[in-house]
Amino acid sequence: MSLKMIDYIVDEHSIDIDSGTLKKVKEMIVASEEGKSVSSKEKQFLYDIVANGRNGIDVDKFDYIERDTRACGLGCNFQFQRLMETMRVIDNEICYRAKEYLTIHKLFSTRADLHRTVYTHPKVKAIELMVVDALIKANDYLQIDSLINEPAQYWMLDDTIVKTIETSTHQDLEESRNLIRRIRRRDIYQVPTIKPESPES
Question: pTM of the predicted model, to two decimals?
């Protein structure tokens, strides 16, 4: 969908971009493994910016770690700006100063904390499962799955769909509506506590 969305944005907003540049942008989005074939080996480091398969330090992590720590009120000691200001390209690879090892350590320790205390927390997983069940039960009426391959419609799918289900009076959404209301009341599924595995990416 990411690549379809890029095409949609370019076409919808009449963005003037040549086909070669557009191809490279798409490759940067999907290039997540070291050694993945790309159209040009020149400036290979560019393909590590979004999803770095060599060492896992990339702007995707910078983005969601800062966003999620702020959203959860956890605070974030990791300062990605320090890395971005001092990084250099050496032998076609993005490198960092040795004295920034603590900053890099904070990146991965903060990510590990998020996985341990937020992403895999039993209550978070329970609510996640309930939302998934609510969406599945609502699908026949709302036709959610018909939108996932249509960028013009897909981009409009966001958290407001939960409010749409919750405030609807349609009989076909009753089961979904009841699940959402259970979440509001904190009457959530009971999920067994499982020690999370160490994240790999």
Answer: 0.76
